[in-house]
Amino acid sequence: MLEKIIDIIFFVSKDTLKIEPPKIYISNFYYSFIINNEIYINIKQEFKYVLFQALHELRHHYQLLYIMNNTDSKSLRWKEEFNNYNKSNYKNLTIEIDAYKFAYKMIKMLGIKYPLSKEVKEVIKK
User: What residues contact residue 120 under an 8 Å CB cut-off, 6+ apart?
Assistant: First the structure.
């Protein structure tokens, strides 16, 4: 499963986002996350859930690269949100809305049926 996810992340990075793919590691945590432009994913779930999480974190990787290379209003807002990340308010952060929308769009493009949770549906509607 990990090889397939890495292949998809590589393809989406290069073909869709036009960026160098990040390094991907297996996480022992329940959730997946990004730190220092490296993605850590929990592979103890069904493939489609792991892929969705990996795509979501890939988008955060893209956002961080965007912040480093741009000074427009979007990059300034994203930088502010990363620097002052508030987990209790994540549904209203543009970085999270963007990452969830991106992951869902990619999952649909890959033809994978993905059951969105109520929380994620709320975020994607924004």
Answer: 100, 104
Average pLDDT over residues 17-44: 84
Alpha helix ranges (H) inside 24-83? 47-69, 73-83
Confidence of residue 25 (pLDDT cuts 50, 70, 90): confident
CA 55 vs CA 4, 37, 58, 71, 119: distances in Å: 13, 13, 5, 25, 17
User: Which 3 state secondary structure label does DSSP give 72?
Assistant: coil
Whether 30 shows a pLDDT value over 80: the answer reads no
CATH of the domain at 115: 3.30.2010
Write down the pLDDT at residue 34. 82
Q: What confidence score (pLDDT) does residue 89 get?
A: 81
Q: Which domain holds residue 44?
A: 2-124
Q: Which of 53, 51, 61 is nearest to 95 (CA)?
A: 61
The Cα 124–Cα 126 span in angstroms is 5
How many domains does the chain contain in total? Answer: 1
Count the helix, strand and coil residues of the chain and give each as a percent rounded to the nearest 5: 65, 10, 30
